[in-house]
Amino acid sequence: MADSRKVGVLGGGQLGRMLIEAANRLNIQVNVLDVAASPAKQISAHDGHIQGSFKDAASVKKLAQSSDVVTVEIEHVDTHMLEEVADQVTVEPSWKTLRMIKDKYAQKLYLKEHGVDVAESLDLEGKGVQALKEVGSSFGYPYMLKSKTEAYDGKGNYVVKSENDVDAAFEALGKRPLYAERWADFRMELAVMVVKTKDGVLTFPTVETVHEDSICKLTYAPPRNVSRAITEKAQDLAKKAIGAFEGKGVFGVEMFLLKDDKLLINEIAPRPHNSGHYTIEACPLSQYDAHLRAILDIPIPASALRLREPSIMLNILGGQSPDSHIQIANRALTLPNASIHLYGKGDARPGRKMGHITITAPTLAEAEAEIQPLVAFVDELKG
Ligand code: ATP
Ligand code: MG
Ligand code: MG
Protein backbone atom coordinates (compact mmCIF):
# COMPACT_ATOMS: atom_id res chain seq x y z
CA MET A 1 0.00 0.00 0.00
CA ALA A 2 1.64 3.24 -1.14
CA ASP A 3 -0.80 5.30 0.86
CA SER A 4 -3.45 4.29 3.36
CA ARG A 5 -5.41 7.53 3.11
CA LYS A 6 -8.84 7.37 1.52
CA VAL A 7 -10.12 9.91 -0.97
CA GLY A 8 -13.85 10.69 -1.11
CA VAL A 9 -15.33 12.01 -4.37
CA LEU A 10 -18.64 13.77 -4.89
CA GLY A 11 -19.81 12.41 -8.24
CA GLY A 12 -19.09 9.17 -10.05
CA GLY A 13 -19.06 10.11 -13.73
CA GLN A 14 -16.24 9.70 -16.23
CA LEU A 15 -13.92 12.13 -14.43
CA GLY A 16 -14.29 10.13 -11.22
CA ARG A 17 -13.73 6.95 -13.20
CA MET A 18 -10.44 8.21 -14.66
CA LEU A 19 -9.39 9.50 -11.23
CA ILE A 20 -9.88 5.96 -9.92
CA GLU A 21 -7.76 4.55 -12.74
CA ALA A 22 -4.93 6.76 -11.45
CA ALA A 23 -5.62 5.98 -7.78
CA ASN A 24 -5.70 2.22 -8.39
CA ARG A 25 -2.11 2.31 -9.63
CA LEU A 26 -1.03 3.78 -6.29
CA ASN A 27 -3.18 1.45 -4.17
CA ILE A 28 -5.22 4.44 -3.02
CA GLN A 29 -8.86 3.77 -2.19
CA VAL A 30 -11.40 6.19 -3.64
CA ASN A 31 -14.87 6.30 -2.06
CA VAL A 32 -17.46 7.48 -4.56
CA LEU A 33 -20.72 9.16 -3.62
CA ASP A 34 -23.20 8.64 -6.45
CA VAL A 35 -25.85 6.22 -7.65
CA ALA A 36 -24.99 2.50 -7.83
CA ALA A 37 -23.13 1.37 -10.95
CA SER A 38 -22.10 4.91 -11.88
CA PRO A 39 -19.12 4.93 -14.31
CA ALA A 40 -16.61 5.40 -11.45
CA LYS A 41 -18.03 2.65 -9.23
CA GLN A 42 -18.00 0.13 -12.07
CA ILE A 43 -14.21 -0.08 -11.96
CA SER A 44 -13.70 -0.04 -8.21
CA ALA A 45 -14.76 -2.95 -6.02
CA HIS A 46 -14.67 -2.19 -2.29
CA ASP A 47 -17.27 -1.51 0.36
CA GLY A 48 -16.39 2.16 0.93
CA HIS A 49 -18.64 3.63 -1.78
CA ILE A 50 -21.75 5.49 -0.77
CA GLN A 51 -24.98 5.12 -2.65
CA GLY A 52 -26.97 8.30 -2.97
CA SER A 53 -26.93 11.77 -4.39
CA PHE A 54 -23.97 14.11 -4.03
CA LYS A 55 -26.63 16.76 -3.37
CA ASP A 56 -27.90 14.95 -0.24
CA ALA A 57 -26.54 16.27 3.09
CA ALA A 58 -26.58 12.97 4.99
CA SER A 59 -24.69 11.22 2.20
CA VAL A 60 -22.03 13.94 2.03
CA LYS A 61 -21.58 13.60 5.80
CA LYS A 62 -21.19 9.84 5.48
CA LEU A 63 -18.58 10.32 2.76
CA ALA A 64 -16.69 12.81 4.94
CA GLN A 65 -16.66 10.37 7.84
CA SER A 66 -15.19 7.57 5.77
CA SER A 67 -12.56 9.62 3.89
CA ASP A 68 -9.36 11.52 4.74
CA VAL A 69 -9.69 14.02 1.89
CA VAL A 70 -12.88 14.92 0.03
CA THR A 71 -12.80 16.23 -3.52
CA VAL A 72 -15.25 16.71 -6.40
CA GLU A 73 -15.55 15.67 -10.01
CA ILE A 74 -18.33 18.20 -10.60
CA GLU A 75 -18.76 21.75 -9.30
CA HIS A 76 -22.56 21.66 -9.13
CA VAL A 77 -22.51 20.56 -5.49
CA ASP A 78 -23.94 22.11 -2.32
CA THR A 79 -20.93 23.95 -0.95
CA HIS A 80 -22.74 24.61 2.35
CA MET A 81 -22.59 20.88 3.09
CA LEU A 82 -18.88 20.90 2.32
CA GLU A 83 -18.40 23.92 4.56
CA GLU A 84 -20.14 21.99 7.33
CA VAL A 85 -17.89 18.92 7.05
CA ALA A 86 -14.69 20.92 6.52
CA ASP A 87 -13.82 20.82 10.22
CA GLN A 88 -13.86 16.99 10.16
CA VAL A 89 -12.21 16.30 6.85
CA THR A 90 -9.93 18.11 4.39
CA VAL A 91 -11.93 19.41 1.42
CA GLU A 92 -9.87 20.08 -1.73
CA PRO A 93 -10.16 22.44 -3.37
CA SER A 94 -11.66 24.63 -0.64
CA TRP A 95 -15.47 24.93 -0.45
CA LYS A 96 -14.91 28.70 -0.78
CA THR A 97 -13.28 28.14 -4.17
CA LEU A 98 -16.04 25.76 -5.26
CA ARG A 99 -18.70 28.27 -4.17
CA MET A 100 -17.06 31.08 -6.13
CA ILE A 101 -16.45 29.03 -9.28
CA LYS A 102 -19.82 27.24 -9.48
CA ASP A 103 -21.44 30.63 -10.14
CA LYS A 104 -19.94 31.63 -13.50
CA TYR A 105 -20.76 35.31 -13.00
CA ALA A 106 -19.33 35.49 -9.46
CA GLN A 107 -16.28 33.66 -10.79
CA LYS A 108 -15.77 36.34 -13.46
CA LEU A 109 -16.16 39.23 -11.02
CA TYR A 110 -13.65 37.59 -8.70
CA LEU A 111 -11.11 37.07 -11.49
CA LYS A 112 -11.56 40.66 -12.64
CA GLU A 113 -10.91 41.90 -9.09
CA HIS A 114 -7.69 39.90 -9.17
CA GLY A 115 -6.53 41.56 -12.37
CA VAL A 116 -7.32 38.64 -14.69
CA ASP A 117 -8.79 39.45 -18.11
CA VAL A 118 -12.20 37.85 -18.61
CA ALA A 119 -15.01 38.17 -21.15
CA GLU A 120 -17.00 41.33 -20.33
CA SER A 121 -20.20 40.47 -18.44
CA LEU A 122 -23.42 42.10 -17.23
CA ASP A 123 -25.66 40.84 -14.45
CA LEU A 124 -29.24 40.06 -15.49
CA GLU A 125 -30.51 38.20 -12.45
CA GLY A 126 -34.13 39.04 -11.68
CA LYS A 127 -34.41 41.14 -14.83
CA GLY A 128 -36.73 40.66 -17.80
CA VAL A 129 -36.85 40.89 -21.56
CA GLN A 130 -36.31 44.66 -21.59
CA ALA A 131 -32.93 44.22 -19.86
CA LEU A 132 -31.90 41.70 -22.53
CA LYS A 133 -32.66 44.32 -25.18
CA GLU A 134 -30.56 46.86 -23.30
CA VAL A 135 -27.64 44.41 -23.33
CA GLY A 136 -28.01 44.30 -27.12
CA SER A 137 -27.76 48.10 -27.29
CA SER A 138 -24.72 48.09 -25.05
CA PHE A 139 -22.77 45.01 -26.27
CA GLY A 140 -24.20 44.83 -29.77
CA TYR A 141 -25.25 41.54 -31.41
CA PRO A 142 -24.52 38.72 -31.22
CA TYR A 143 -23.99 38.39 -27.51
CA MET A 144 -24.06 35.31 -25.27
CA LEU A 145 -26.79 34.90 -22.67
CA LYS A 146 -25.64 32.52 -19.94
CA SER A 147 -27.04 30.83 -16.88
CA LYS A 148 -24.83 31.61 -13.88
CA THR A 149 -25.22 28.10 -12.48
CA GLU A 150 -25.70 24.43 -13.38
CA ALA A 151 -24.24 24.97 -16.83
CA TYR A 152 -22.28 22.37 -18.80
CA ASP A 153 -21.75 21.46 -22.47
CA GLY A 154 -23.45 24.69 -23.49
CA LYS A 155 -26.67 23.77 -21.66
CA GLY A 156 -27.24 27.16 -20.11
CA ASN A 157 -26.01 29.30 -23.01
CA TYR A 158 -28.02 31.05 -25.73
CA VAL A 159 -26.57 33.04 -28.61
CA VAL A 160 -28.66 36.18 -28.98
CA LYS A 161 -28.11 37.09 -32.63
CA SER A 162 -30.44 40.07 -32.87
CA GLU A 163 -33.24 41.82 -31.01
CA ASN A 164 -35.61 39.31 -32.67
CA ASP A 165 -33.98 36.51 -30.60
CA VAL A 166 -34.55 38.14 -27.24
CA ASP A 167 -37.98 36.62 -26.56
CA ALA A 168 -36.87 33.10 -27.52
CA ALA A 169 -33.71 33.46 -25.42
CA PHE A 170 -35.70 34.52 -22.39
CA GLU A 171 -38.18 31.71 -23.01
CA ALA A 172 -35.31 29.20 -23.06
CA LEU A 173 -33.32 30.42 -20.04
CA GLY A 174 -35.51 32.94 -18.20
CA LYS A 175 -36.17 30.63 -15.23
CA ARG A 176 -32.46 30.46 -14.41
CA PRO A 177 -30.20 33.13 -12.85
CA LEU A 178 -28.78 34.92 -15.88
CA TYR A 179 -25.95 37.15 -17.02
CA ALA A 180 -24.79 38.29 -20.44
CA GLU A 181 -21.36 38.18 -22.03
CA ARG A 182 -19.94 40.32 -24.79
CA TRP A 183 -19.32 38.17 -27.88
CA ALA A 184 -15.70 37.04 -28.08
CA ASP A 185 -14.75 37.03 -31.75
CA PHE A 186 -11.99 34.52 -31.13
CA ARG A 187 -9.42 33.10 -33.50
CA MET A 188 -9.20 29.96 -31.44
CA GLU A 189 -10.06 28.54 -28.03
CA LEU A 190 -7.23 27.43 -25.76
CA ALA A 191 -7.17 25.59 -22.46
CA VAL A 192 -4.58 24.99 -19.78
CA MET A 193 -4.79 22.45 -16.97
CA VAL A 194 -3.34 23.97 -13.82
CA VAL A 195 -2.18 22.07 -10.75
CA LYS A 196 -2.30 23.81 -7.39
CA THR A 197 -0.18 22.08 -4.76
CA LYS A 198 0.86 22.93 -1.21
CA ASP A 199 4.01 24.49 -2.71
CA GLY A 200 2.68 26.51 -5.64
CA VAL A 201 1.06 26.48 -9.05
CA LEU A 202 2.17 24.27 -11.97
CA THR A 203 0.77 23.98 -15.47
CA PHE A 204 0.36 21.37 -18.15
CA PRO A 205 0.98 22.50 -21.76
CA THR A 206 -1.50 24.78 -23.53
CA VAL A 207 -3.96 22.99 -25.81
CA GLU A 208 -6.31 24.12 -28.56
CA THR A 209 -9.93 23.16 -28.01
CA VAL A 210 -12.52 22.90 -30.76
CA HIS A 211 -16.15 23.16 -29.71
CA GLU A 212 -19.14 22.23 -31.83
CA ASP A 213 -22.62 23.24 -30.66
CA SER A 214 -20.93 24.49 -27.46
CA ILE A 215 -19.58 20.98 -26.67
CA CYS A 216 -15.89 20.21 -26.72
CA LYS A 217 -15.20 18.02 -29.76
CA LEU A 218 -11.42 17.96 -30.20
CA THR A 219 -8.26 19.07 -28.43
CA TYR A 220 -4.89 19.60 -30.08
CA ALA A 221 -1.66 19.57 -28.11
CA PRO A 222 0.19 21.69 -29.05
CA PRO A 223 -2.29 24.17 -30.61
CA ARG A 224 -2.14 24.54 -34.40
CA ASN A 225 -0.36 27.62 -35.76
CA VAL A 226 0.11 29.34 -32.42
CA SER A 227 3.48 30.75 -31.40
CA ARG A 228 5.32 29.61 -28.34
CA ALA A 229 5.05 33.13 -26.95
CA ILE A 230 1.25 32.79 -26.97
CA THR A 231 1.13 29.29 -25.48
CA GLU A 232 3.39 30.53 -22.69
CA LYS A 233 1.26 33.63 -22.20
CA ALA A 234 -1.76 31.34 -21.86
CA GLN A 235 0.01 29.28 -19.21
CA ASP A 236 0.93 32.45 -17.32
CA LEU A 237 -2.64 33.74 -17.45
CA ALA A 238 -3.99 30.38 -16.26
CA LYS A 239 -1.47 30.36 -13.41
CA LYS A 240 -2.41 33.87 -12.36
CA ALA A 241 -6.12 32.98 -12.40
CA ILE A 242 -5.77 29.83 -10.31
CA GLY A 243 -3.29 31.49 -7.97
CA ALA A 244 -6.21 33.68 -6.87
CA PHE A 245 -8.12 30.70 -5.42
CA GLU A 246 -7.69 28.74 -2.21
CA GLY A 247 -7.06 25.02 -2.09
CA LYS A 248 -5.29 22.25 -3.92
CA GLY A 249 -6.01 20.16 -6.98
CA VAL A 250 -6.30 20.38 -10.72
CA PHE A 251 -8.22 23.19 -12.43
CA GLY A 252 -9.23 23.52 -16.08
CA VAL A 253 -8.89 27.02 -17.51
CA GLU A 254 -10.71 27.76 -20.77
CA MET A 255 -9.65 30.81 -22.79
CA PHE A 256 -10.39 32.75 -25.94
CA LEU A 257 -7.46 33.74 -28.16
CA LEU A 258 -8.71 36.86 -29.91
CA LYS A 259 -7.71 37.94 -33.41
CA ASP A 260 -5.27 40.52 -32.02
CA ASP A 261 -3.61 37.75 -29.93
CA LYS A 262 -5.16 39.04 -26.70
CA LEU A 263 -6.21 36.29 -24.27
CA LEU A 264 -9.43 36.33 -22.24
CA ILE A 265 -10.54 33.73 -19.74
CA ASN A 266 -13.83 32.10 -20.66
CA GLU A 267 -14.31 30.00 -17.54
CA ILE A 268 -12.63 27.84 -14.94
CA ALA A 269 -13.47 24.34 -13.73
CA PRO A 270 -12.27 23.41 -10.22
CA ARG A 271 -11.49 19.79 -11.17
CA PRO A 272 -10.04 17.61 -13.93
CA HIS A 273 -11.49 18.68 -17.26
CA ASN A 274 -12.29 17.37 -20.73
CA SER A 275 -9.51 19.50 -22.22
CA GLY A 276 -7.00 17.60 -20.06
CA HIS A 277 -7.89 14.02 -21.08
CA TYR A 278 -4.98 14.02 -23.54
CA THR A 279 -2.55 14.05 -20.58
CA ILE A 280 -3.30 10.37 -19.88
CA GLU A 281 -1.27 9.28 -22.89
CA ALA A 282 0.66 12.42 -23.83
CA CYS A 283 2.32 13.41 -20.54
CA PRO A 284 4.34 11.47 -17.92
CA LEU A 285 1.69 12.33 -15.30
CA SER A 286 -1.97 12.69 -16.28
CA GLN A 287 -4.31 15.36 -14.92
CA TYR A 288 -5.81 12.60 -12.75
CA ASP A 289 -2.43 11.57 -11.34
CA ALA A 290 -1.72 15.24 -10.69
CA HIS A 291 -5.08 15.89 -9.00
CA LEU A 292 -4.64 12.94 -6.68
CA ARG A 293 -1.06 13.88 -5.84
CA ALA A 294 -1.94 17.54 -5.27
CA ILE A 295 -4.78 16.86 -2.84
CA LEU A 296 -2.69 14.27 -0.94
CA ASP A 297 0.56 16.31 -0.90
CA ILE A 298 2.39 13.64 -2.90
CA PRO A 299 5.37 15.03 -4.90
CA ILE A 300 4.78 16.28 -8.47
CA PRO A 301 7.97 16.95 -10.45
CA ALA A 302 7.17 19.99 -12.64
CA SER A 303 8.73 18.35 -15.71
CA ALA A 304 6.33 15.39 -15.33
CA LEU A 305 3.63 17.69 -16.71
CA ARG A 306 5.42 18.09 -20.06
CA LEU A 307 4.15 16.95 -23.42
CA ARG A 308 5.92 13.76 -24.47
CA GLU A 309 4.42 13.62 -27.92
CA PRO A 310 1.91 15.73 -29.89
CA SER A 311 -1.62 14.48 -29.38
CA ILE A 312 -5.19 14.90 -30.51
CA MET A 313 -8.19 13.95 -28.40
CA LEU A 314 -11.58 13.30 -29.98
CA ASN A 315 -14.66 13.10 -27.80
CA ILE A 316 -17.00 10.21 -28.51
CA LEU A 317 -20.33 12.01 -28.36
CA GLY A 318 -23.58 10.12 -28.68
CA GLY A 319 -25.00 10.19 -32.23
CA GLN A 320 -28.41 9.32 -33.64
CA SER A 321 -28.32 5.63 -32.68
CA PRO A 322 -27.94 4.25 -29.13
CA ASP A 323 -24.81 2.30 -30.12
CA SER A 324 -23.08 5.11 -32.03
CA HIS A 325 -20.26 5.22 -29.47
CA ILE A 326 -19.59 1.51 -29.92
CA GLN A 327 -19.40 1.97 -33.69
CA ILE A 328 -16.85 4.76 -33.22
CA ALA A 329 -14.79 2.76 -30.73
CA ASN A 330 -14.81 -0.25 -33.09
CA ARG A 331 -13.56 1.92 -35.93
CA ALA A 332 -10.78 3.29 -33.68
CA LEU A 333 -9.62 -0.27 -32.88
CA THR A 334 -7.98 -0.40 -36.31
CA LEU A 335 -5.80 2.68 -35.67
CA PRO A 336 -2.29 1.92 -34.40
CA ASN A 337 -1.88 4.97 -32.15
CA ALA A 338 -5.40 5.34 -30.77
CA SER A 339 -6.10 4.89 -27.07
CA ILE A 340 -9.80 4.29 -26.57
CA HIS A 341 -11.68 5.26 -23.42
CA LEU A 342 -15.33 4.25 -23.01
CA TYR A 343 -17.12 5.50 -19.91
CA GLY A 344 -19.58 2.66 -19.22
CA LYS A 345 -22.68 4.82 -19.61
CA GLY A 346 -24.98 2.40 -21.48
CA ASP A 347 -26.99 3.77 -24.39
CA ALA A 348 -25.92 6.90 -26.23
CA ARG A 349 -28.07 10.00 -26.50
CA PRO A 350 -27.27 12.74 -29.03
CA GLY A 351 -24.43 14.91 -27.69
CA ARG A 352 -23.82 12.85 -24.55
CA LYS A 353 -20.17 12.26 -23.67
CA MET A 354 -19.76 8.48 -24.02
CA GLY A 355 -15.98 8.21 -24.25
CA HIS A 356 -12.94 9.68 -25.94
CA ILE A 357 -10.03 8.67 -28.14
CA THR A 358 -6.50 10.04 -27.91
CA ILE A 359 -3.92 9.67 -30.64
CA THR A 360 -0.30 10.57 -30.01
CA ALA A 361 2.31 10.65 -32.78
CA PRO A 362 5.79 12.07 -33.42
CA THR A 363 4.20 15.08 -35.17
CA LEU A 364 0.77 16.70 -34.95
CA ALA A 365 0.41 16.26 -38.73
CA GLU A 366 0.74 12.48 -38.35
CA ALA A 367 -1.79 12.45 -35.54
CA GLU A 368 -4.15 14.55 -37.70
CA ALA A 369 -3.82 12.19 -40.65
CA GLU A 370 -4.61 9.20 -38.43
CA ILE A 371 -7.63 10.71 -36.69
CA GLN A 372 -9.19 12.41 -39.74
CA PRO A 373 -11.26 9.39 -40.95
CA LEU A 374 -12.55 8.94 -37.41
CA VAL A 375 -13.64 12.58 -37.19
CA ALA A 376 -15.46 12.13 -40.51
CA PHE A 377 -17.18 8.99 -39.16
CA VAL A 378 -18.27 10.82 -35.99
CA ASP A 379 -19.77 13.59 -38.15
CA GLU A 380 -21.56 10.98 -40.25
CA LEU A 381 -23.13 9.29 -37.18
CA LYS A 382 -24.19 12.65 -35.79
CA GLY A 383 -26.57 12.89 -38.75
P1 ATP B 1 -18.43 23.51 -20.18
O1 ATP B 1 -19.00 22.21 -20.64
O2 ATP B 1 -17.05 23.77 -20.69
O3 ATP B 1 -18.59 23.78 -18.71
P2 ATP B 1 -20.40 25.64 -20.48
O4 ATP B 1 -21.75 25.05 -20.68
O5 ATP B 1 -20.08 26.18 -19.12
O6 ATP B 1 -19.28 24.63 -20.97
P3 ATP B 1 -19.17 27.89 -21.84
O7 ATP B 1 -17.80 27.41 -21.59
O8 ATP B 1 -19.61 29.15 -21.19
O9 ATP B 1 -20.28 26.77 -21.57
O10 ATP B 1 -19.41 28.07 -23.41
C1 ATP B 1 -19.33 26.96 -24.29
C2 ATP B 1 -18.74 27.43 -25.61
O11 ATP B 1 -19.55 28.46 -26.18
C3 ATP B 1 -17.36 28.05 -25.48
O12 ATP B 1 -16.35 27.08 -25.40
C4 ATP B 1 -17.32 28.88 -26.77
O13 ATP B 1 -17.11 28.06 -27.89
C5 ATP B 1 -18.73 29.44 -26.82
N1 ATP B 1 -18.81 30.72 -26.08
C6 ATP B 1 -19.01 30.89 -24.75
N2 ATP B 1 -19.00 32.18 -24.38
C7 ATP B 1 -18.76 32.89 -25.50
C8 ATP B 1 -18.60 34.29 -25.79
N3 ATP B 1 -18.70 35.23 -24.84
N4 ATP B 1 -18.34 34.63 -27.06
C9 ATP B 1 -18.24 33.69 -28.05
N5 ATP B 1 -18.38 32.38 -27.85
C10 ATP B 1 -18.63 31.95 -26.59
MG1 MG C 1 -18.72 25.48 -17.76
MG1 MG D 1 -16.79 25.78 -20.99
From TrEMBL:
<dbReference type="GO" id="GO:0046872">
    <property type="term" value="F:metal ion binding"/>
</dbReference>
<dbReference type="GO" id="GO:0006189">
    <property type="term" value="P:'de novo' IMP biosynthetic process"/>
</dbReference>
<feature type="domain" description="ATP-grasp">
    <location>
        <begin position="108"/>
        <end position="296"/>
    </location>
</feature>
<dbReference type="GO" id="GO:0005524">
    <property type="term" value="F:ATP binding"/>
</dbReference>
<keyword id="KW-0658">Purine biosynthesis</keyword>
<protein>
    <recommendedName>
        <fullName>Phosphoribosylaminoimidazole carboxylase</fullName>
        <ecNumber>4.1.1.21</ecNumber>
    </recommendedName>
</protein>
<comment type="pathway">
    <text>Purine metabolism; IMP biosynthesis via de novo pathway; 5-amino-1-(5-phospho-D-ribosyl)imidazole-4-carboxylate from 5-amino-1-(5-phospho-D-ribosyl)imidazole (carboxylase route): step 1/1.</text>
</comment>
<keyword id="KW-0547">Nucleotide-binding</keyword>
<dbReference type="GO" id="GO:0004638">
    <property type="term" value="F:phosphoribosylaminoimidazole carboxylase activity"/>
</dbReference>
<comment type="similarity">
    <text>In the C-terminal section; belongs to the AIR carboxylase family. Class I subfamily.</text>
</comment>
<keyword id="KW-0067">ATP-binding</keyword>
<keyword id="KW-0456">Lyase</keyword>
<keyword id="KW-0210">Decarboxylase</keyword>
